[in-house]
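Discussion board: Methods & Data

I've been asked by a reviewer to show the raw model output for two of the constructs in my manuscript, not just the figures. I'm not sure how much to include, so I'm pasting the format here to get opinions. Each protein appears as its amino acid sequence followed by a line of discrete structure tokens. Is this the kind of thing reviewers expect to see in a supplement, or should I convert it first? Here is construct A:
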Amino acid sequence: DISIAFLQALDIKNAVVCDLLSAAGARAVRYAKETNAAKVYANDASEAAFKNIKENSKINNVGDKVVASCKGANAFLASKRKKFDFIDIDPFGSPVYFLDELAKWKTLFFPGPMSAKAEAMKQQGIDFTYANLGSNKYRGMEQGATSGSGMVGGC
């Protein structure tokens, strides 16, 4: 699985990982066993999935590393205003429903640039949403740019 290999390549010591849509917890178990993760938060909105995450963590002897949760993805992220080193989002369908909540995280970790960007958006009459604020579409607006650079990532 590419996400496991990617996290291994990052080699983050004591990583805190979020498996946002964990289902049965298979990937959460793999993060706990195959990477340097100190904690893996495995979340799913399904009560059956939540029970499976707990059982699979126990069976695979990673119950001390895997923390199971049963919330909707947005509610889980909103309740965990903590730093994750890695967030795995592997939805069945489109991830678009989670973009607004993820953009809020960007404002937590880059408050200065995001405040300046929000002010610039307001001055230009652009609707304030966390999705717009976190989007690269308006990247550099606080420095006078009229549209984003088209680059992926960054503030």
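Construct B, same format:
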Amino acid sequence: VLDDSAHLRSVSLKTISLSATSQKDIVAIGAPFNVTSAPGYAAVLESTVTNIGGVDVRSPWGPYFFAAVNEDQNFGWSVSLSNSGNYLVVGAPYSSTNNQGQVRIYNNNNNWEKEIGVGVAGKVGSELFGYSIAIDGSGNRFVAGSPGPDKAKVY
């Protein structure tokens, strides 16, 4: 049960985005307003079930955290997990001094240690790129958008 996680409870009041997998017990949360003057973060929480002597034992929700590099990015404004839970896309729409926005992509390759590439940035000021995001089930493609009509792009 998600409410049993002290980690999830501790950030739930500041959380704005949530994504869950369809195949595993993995959730991603985005907390762009983490604390005062903080850049925001995204967290992946994973729980596993192990059968020990015929009894299913659930592990605690283990967190992996990703934080923005600079303040005022609202990193974690949007999050999306692939079905397998192996790919995470995080939006930071207020990234850069002129709010171009940015999307970062992560791969679960032994404890979520690696960001894939350097991220994708918005092209113009006040674009707020990464305001909304979604990743396909396989993790091969994602769509990122900005507020307003016709402002989404598939990668």
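Answer (T.O., handling editor elsewhere):
This is acceptable in a supplement if you add a one-line summary per construct. For B, something like: DSSP finds one helix and 13 strands in the chain.
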